[in-house]
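Good morning,

Attaching, inline, the backbone tokens for the sequence recovery test we're adding to the shared suite. The designed sequence is right after.
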């Protein structure tokens, strides 16, 4: 750390402050389980915000920004990709939500119509590959829609969209085996030559798996390369390299437990979907790293406007991304782990809660509230409450 953040106190005061910083939570075992009322209120607020902020065309998010300086995103391709990815997450979250009403079903259906009209995004240039987010979350949204609504009359359109996206993910697979979102150096080519990211690849793989459940075919050599890339990205400690370009510096701060915490559950989950076995102890370590041991470092990154400026090169936009994938992993853990970690997960999500019912972790044009709220809703839907 860049110097102590603990004030000059002594005796028992210093001991208490040091204990809080060391554990990342204040007597977590004494906070008690999440109540149904707590969880349901947060879910209701998130759902209400998504319903109130859906555009007339069925999508969510926009390029508008109150900030003078923003993340690099050229027009129109990168913003089309951001909007499709954001809208897909919103559809997924409304499908996931335990709060199902005529209004939520109508909103999700309108969101699906938007995705069917806009999913075929094209990258803005050879540097920005934000389209991969639209491909990954689009495939997941289409796949989960067919799981929930197998008799939907739009099924042929959805399947056709998935088949087209299967070609797109093959086309944009990086030569090192995975998928990345930027080519900041190296040769910028039509088929990206550098460099894959572990978590981006995991997001794509999860979308692929959802589509495969409905018979959508994907190139086997593409999948083999992706699985090999994910294995190669895993460190002996069980973390995942941020990207392939860091393979010669695996002990870089962003690859350590604290820097990897928000992407480890996502990468584990994607690999498990494709047959990789992780023991309960390995999954438990990933969840504990994120939700208990190193949660303070994740919180320190929140709402910082410059990517990777926080400790261990953590960006604010890692935060809710990590929490929502952690909820998928937690869902498959023993009941004792679900009960133990639901309170830390719930409290971590609520750090991002806003008075209007939305959630956000990093300012990104006008996409951050809808994607943040969707990710929070996905995670909240898997929080175990007191019986």
């Amino acid at each position: 750390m860049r110097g102590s953040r603990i004030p000059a106190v002594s005796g028992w005061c210093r001991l208490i402050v040091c204990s809080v910083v060391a554990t990342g939570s204040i007597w977590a075992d004494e906070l008690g389980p999440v109540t149904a009322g707590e969880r349901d209120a947060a879910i209701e607020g998130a759902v209400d915000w998504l319903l109130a902020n859906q555009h007339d065309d069925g999508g969510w998010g926009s390029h508008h920004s109150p900030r003078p300086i923003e993340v690099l995103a050229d027009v129109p391709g990168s913003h089309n990709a951001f909007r499709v990815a954001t809208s897909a997450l919103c559809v997924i979250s409304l499908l996931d939500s335990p709060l199902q009403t005529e209004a939520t079903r109508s909103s999700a259906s309108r969101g699906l119509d938007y995705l069917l009209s806009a999913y075929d995004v094209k990258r803005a240039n050879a540097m920005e590959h934000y389209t991969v987010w639209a491909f990954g979350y689009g495939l997941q949204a289409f796949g989960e829609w067919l799981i929930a609504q197998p008799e939907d009359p739009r099924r042929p359109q959805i399947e056709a969209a998935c088949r087209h996206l299967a070609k797109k993910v093959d086309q944009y697979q990086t030569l090192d085996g995975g998928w990345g979102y930027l080519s900041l150096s190296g040769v910028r080519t039509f088929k990206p030559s550098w460099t894959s990211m572990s978590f981006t690849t995991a997001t794509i793989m999860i979308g692929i798996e959802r589509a495969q459940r409905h018979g959508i075919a994907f190139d086997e050599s593409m999948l083999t390369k992706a699985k090999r890339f994910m294995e190669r990205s895993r460190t002996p400690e069980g973390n995942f390299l941020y990207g392939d370009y860091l393979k010669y510096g695996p002990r870089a701060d962003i690859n350590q437990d604290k820097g990897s915490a928000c992407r480890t559950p996502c990468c584990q989950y994607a690999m498990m979907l494709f047959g990789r076995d992780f023991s309960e102890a390995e999954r438990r370590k990933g969840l504990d790293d994120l939700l208990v041991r190193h949660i303070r470092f994740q919180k320190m990154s929140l709402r910082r406007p410059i990517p990777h400026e926080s400790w261990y090169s953590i960006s604010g936009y890692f935060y809710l991304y990590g929490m929502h994938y952690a909820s998928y992993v937690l869902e498959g853990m023993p009941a004792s782990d679900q009960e133990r970690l639901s309170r830390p997960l719930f409290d971590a999500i609520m750090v991002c809660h806003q008075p209007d019912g939305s959630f956000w972790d990093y300012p990104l044009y006008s996409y951050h509230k809808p994607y943040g709220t969707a990710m929070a809703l996905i995670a909240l839907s898997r929080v175990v409450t007191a019986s």
